[in-house]
Amino acid sequence: MTTVAVFGAKGRMGREVVAAIEAAPDLELGATVDHGEDRGPVAEADVVVDFTVPDVVMDNLEWAIAHGVHCVVGTTGFTPERLDTVRGWLEAHPGTNAIIASNFSVGALLMMKFAAEAARFYESVEVVELHHPDKVDAPSGTAVTTARKIAAARAAAGVAPSPDATATQLDGARGAVVDGIHVHSVRQRGLFAHQEVLLGNPGETLTLREDSMSRTSYMTGVLAAVRAVASRPGLTEGIEDLLGI
Ligand SMILES: NC(=O)C1=CN([C@@H]2O[C@H](COP(=O)(O)OP(=O)(O)OC[C@H]3O[C@@H](n4cnc5c(N)ncnc54)[C@H](OP(=O)(O)O)[C@@H]3O)[C@@H](O)[C@H]2O)C=CC1
Ligand SMILES: O=C(O)C1=N[C@H](C(=O)O)C[C@H](O)C1
Fold first, then answer.
1. N or C end of the chain: which has fewer CB within 10 A?
2. pLDDT means per 10 residues in the chain (245 residues)?
């Protein structure tokens, strides 16, 4: 039986993860910790799942790795520099592993894969993410990951930057730019988590869209990561391999 603790247990994702662990016959729920609570008991767990906020996740990770607890992380905000820092902590604690994924839903993973595949065939590509207005970060972690994958695919294929004649603009009108890809963030009550990748050529467009309707969509991926993390040395970025995507 694998004992799984949860950081951010009272949050929107944390509550869903707690329920998923309780329902899994091969997993046992360990310590559940939220803002201001003692994380000491997490050291007894085999794995800790973190769905907190970008400002605190690094501190939680450093602590958990130092205590030999494998980490599964869905919290967003992981820059290449942050990932390097985590790699350093893991190297200093061989035998302790981490899986970090900006999205655990099958649909989002497929959408990112299809977007990266399509990106080299089009002159123009932009990402639009749409989320509930209680989300604290923009752009979403998924949109940033998508943009990076698209940019890498286009660079590998030698595709020129998307054409854009904009000469004057209000600040932010063209969105954020991630590795050269424009990313737009919509926040709207009634939405949960959605993303479109817009691709265009002379005379044709392709729109890839993924919709998560509820947080249940992430649980298959989260549980797969929890079950796999002990056997994947060091840092694993994304869960595509685990799900065969
Ligand atoms: N990878 C994926 O597939 C997904 C990732 N996410 C990401 O997960 C993160 C959480 O999202 P969501 O659940 O909606 O956010 P919430 O704000 O609902 O939950 C975060 C929780 O973490 C708590 N918290 C804050 N600081 C600490 C701390 N030091 N230790 C333990 N708990 C703490 C918060 O408490 P308080 O509010 O009192 O500060 C809150 O209860 C976000 O980064 C989001 O983007 C979300 C969905 C899917
Ligand atoms: O905050 C959310 O809700 C979500 N966060 C993740 C992100 O930033 O990509 C995953 C999903 O989009 C939901």
1. N
2. 98 98 98 98 98 97 98 97 98 98 98 98 98 97 98 98 97 97 98 98 98 97 98 98 96
Residues annotated within a binding site for NADP(+): 39
Question: In this structure, which ligand is nearest to the CA of 138?
Answer: 2
E strand or H helix at 118:
helix 106-118
What interface predicted TM-score (ipTM) does this complex get? 0.99
Closest ligand 2 atom number to CA of residue 129: 12
Most ligand 1 atoms within 8 A of CB, residue of 17, 34, 187, 191 to mutate: 34
- Given a contact cutoff of 8 angstroms between Cβ atoms, the answer to whether 101 and 74 are in contact is yes
Q: Which ligand 2 atom sits closest to the C-alpha of 192?
A: 3
CATH number of 106-212: 3.30.360.10
CA of 168 relative to ligand 1 center, distance in Å: 37
